Structure prediction request, 418 residues.
Amino acid sequence: MSESTILPLVDEQDMPSEAIGAESGSEDEIVLRLLDCKKKERRGGLSFIGDRPSFSLWSFLKSAVGKDLTRVTMPIHFNEPLSFTQRLVEDLEYADALHAAADCSNSLECLAHVAAFACSCYGAALGRHYKPFNPLLGETFDAVREDRGFAVLTEQVCHHPPVTVMHCIGRKWKLWQEYKLETRFRGNHIRVIPTGMVYLEMGKHRFSWNKPQTTIHNIIIGRLWLDHDGEVVVNNHTTKESATVHFMSYSKQGSNFKKLQGCVRNARGEEKYFLRGAWDEGVKYYATGASASAAKTIWESSVKPPNSSQMFGFTRLAVELNEPPSPSECVCPSDSRQRPDQRAFEEANLDHAAKEKHRVEEKQRTARRVREHGGDQHLPRWFVPKVDDYTGLPCHVYKGGYWAMKQSGSFPPGPDIF
Prediction:
């Protein structure tokens, strides 16, 4: 069997139900029908566009030196009007790279596209000087993006340490991840260290990869900027092929710190494709032995809205994530779009937003004390923990039921977190 035909990239179970006659009522079929719906019109801006009141970051940060920032209550002025359950969905900004990967004719070219996608979610952070709202325990978010070819669900499954999980269904692939991180404030910078993994299923192929570390500079003095460093290693566990992409920190690379370099290796460790680009611009690939001038583009950075600087530096996708749901949409009561402090903050009602933020956080603390007193543990509603068969690492995986309930038009009662 030749290297280029190791396994089919897409098999019948991943094709649209109308093409293969999938079992009626399956959740995959429900999602595929949702993705076949007419494209909806989405908003082009936030509820309020304009300057926000300034605040003294220094007076707050002086008390936070050396602390785990995931355990520090942040002033609301430090936020942007998105929850991290929504912010995580921005990882899918360039999902077209996965759609293209599923259509590749061989597994190595497919791996090049997957590796490029793994590096695509960092450019959106440029110009984003605010942090998302910390999700409440049990907070969820869903987005059906028929225009982008995927439907995604996220849930906050742990509060200390914070763990946000995602499950996404595309037409020919499924992606899930468990996002955990460690953060430390050191003088004039913050170090963010992701510790979870990302997983992808595409036909008979199974992939996994890690994320690089991020440093946010000039927290107190100077212009905010960030860089990423470390290696992103993407493994195809089915074929034993791998790709490695190098992120270079400013201290190592100087002004070229945004550049990316990587390669795709076959199961024998031989280089077959090269990856070149920048995490804020895009990624191209070309075969070994070919000229770099023959490189093909896998993804390139999308243009932000003209007034992005007055909308927290949001991309077009970010603008759309917290759009109020239509009256006809069935929305889970725990969905981030229902969160009152975040909605008030987007509408620039800052006093009310601050009061609501304090209220929902105190409500969460009270619920935690009740659980601890009764010896109970919080159980995620839509995900269950398991050990991944390929990496041997623990990861929350989707247990099913959400999309069927959304289609039915109602969700059963759950914890009242808002």
Confidence is low (pLDDT under 50) at residues 4-8, 10-25. Residues 39 and 147 are 6 Å apart (CA to CA). The longest strand covers residues 174-186. Residues 350-374 form the longest helix (25 residues).
